[in-house]
Design a protein that fits this description.
- The chain is mainly beta.
- The protein has 1 helix and 28 strands.
Length: 420
């Protein structure tokens, strides 16, 4: 019986390694420096056979602030890039620099950039020739706008714009929708509920013919902990349905219990994950450091899988992203478990999340941005060493064949004694 037990365990291990249920690891090339200096806050999008990478450059004027510019690189094959340095700007800032733009590329390969050009001005830049030239337009906002706009493309090809504006002593999230970025209706509040304050950092996904937006906000009665809320639109973003409280659950996957008012939730991200909506975000209980969490919801916002704590330990994990690649769901983020920030990727194998450090390089690596062009995956991020900021590209190494477990008694093309 003992011998049979060993055989059974060995058979299970073989099936685990050989079965597609337990997918093989991705192999990676060495990180490549695309922008050797001056690149910050990268964003990348793909569409219509075009991959666009936009970043921000800053010229400091000391403690008084400085000026920001936008630069772009565009590729149609992921190998050859054309660059248009400082195609937009300068934009003045006070104090320390912060992100000021949002990038969207539609199915025709047209590049759209929305920029916070001033306290009451949103500028739009559009390129139909791969980033070589841009046309510009702008809108004025009635209320002061304090954070970078968020520009998204809806399932029907329209545009959805979110702006965070100062409403008295609080921040409020406003939205507007249009078929073109050159003309916009007056923005309207996304969360007009009186018990919500400080609403901002929205993220959007189109799913099964409807539009979904998640955002963080403070809610009366829930203390100083940010909560996550979802709204659903069935008319392309013109109007939005009832508020869905996503972070109000009391139990997690491992059975841990929560008091929502004591748990802070920030920087949510949505993605279509094969018939469900994946949600990832930063979550922090009490004085703990933020950790990456993940769950899945259905088209009505109902939780299908309990929230999982993906990261743990004493590091601060930030900026989670969801990547769907080769029928697998990956999470990307950066954390400081090694001192400086590193980029990590993870996918769930069985009951565990399998992590890998993607940035074995000097300096701090932050803000991962994955894109898929055709079958090609690329991940961009910012790497900072001292006062130097660089933009890095990483892609899988398709020349390496992953190891395959083969029984010693097996000969290709021949039957073995074990065949039935």
């Amino acid at each position: 019986m003992r011998r049979r037990g060993f055989l059974t365990a060995g058979l299970f291990l073989f099936l685990r390694l050989a079965s597609p249920i337990f997918p093989q690891d991705l192999y990676w090339e060495d990180p490549e420096i695309l922008v050797s200096s001056g690149g910050r806050y990268p964003q990348a999008q793909t569409g219509g056979g075009v991959t666009a990478l936009v970043w921000q450059e800053t010229v400091s004027r000391g403690s008084a602030g400085g000026e920001s510019f936008l630069s772009i690189r565009v590729s149609r094959d992921g190998k050859t890039w054309t660059e248009n340095r400082r195609f937009a700007g300068p934009y003045s800032y006070l104090g320390n620099p912060s992100p000021i733009f949002s990038l969207a590329v539609n199915k025709e390969g047209t590049i759209h950039v929305a920029v916070l050009a001033g306290e009451n001005t949103i500028q739009f830049l559009v390129s139909r020739d791969g980033g070589a030239t841009f046309t510009t337009s702008s809108i004025k906002t009635v209320l002061p706008t304090t954070l970078a706009p968020r520009l998204f493309i809806t399932g029907s090809g329209g545009f959805l714009l979110f702006v965070t504006q100062e409403l008295g002593d609080v921040l409020a999230l406003y939205y507007t929708v249009s078929d073109t970025v050159t003309s916009w209706p007056e923005p309207r509040p996304l969360a007009p509920e009186t018990d919500l304050t400080l609403s901002f950092l929205p993220h959007h996904v189109s799913f099964q013919g409807r539009e979904y937006v998640v955002f963080q906000a403070l809610r009366a009665g829930e203390g100083a902990a940010y909560q996550l809320f979802l709204r659903i639109s069935g008319d392309g973003g013109t109007s939005w349905g009832p508020l869905v409280w996503l972070s109000g659950f009391a139990k997690g996957l491992s059975g841990e219990t929560y008091l929502p008012a004591q748990v802070d939730n920030q920087r949510p991200f949505l993605a279509d994950v094969d018939g469900r909506i994946g949600v990832t975000w930063e979550r922090r209980s009490g004085r703990e450091l933020p950790q990456i969490h993940y769950m899945e919801i259905d088209g009505e916002g109902r939780i299908l899988s309990a929230a999982e704590k993906v990261t743990g330990g004493f590091q601060a994990a930030n900026f989670p992203q969801i990547l769907r690649y080769r029928d697998r769901t990956f999470l990307l983020w950066f954390d400081n478990r090694k001192g400086a920030d590193h980029i990590f990727i993870a996918d769930k194998q069985g009951v565990f999340w399998n992590e890998k450090d993607l940035s074995p390089m000097e300096g701090g690596s932050t803000f991962p941005r994955p894109v898929i062009q055709g079958e090609e995956l690329r991940i961009f991020w910012e790497n900072r060493r001292g006062d130097q900021s660089r933009i890095v590209q990483l892609k899988p190494d398709t020349t390496v064949e992953p190891p395959v477990v083969t029984p010693l008694t097996y000969t290709a093309g021949k039957r073995s004694r074990g065949d039935l």
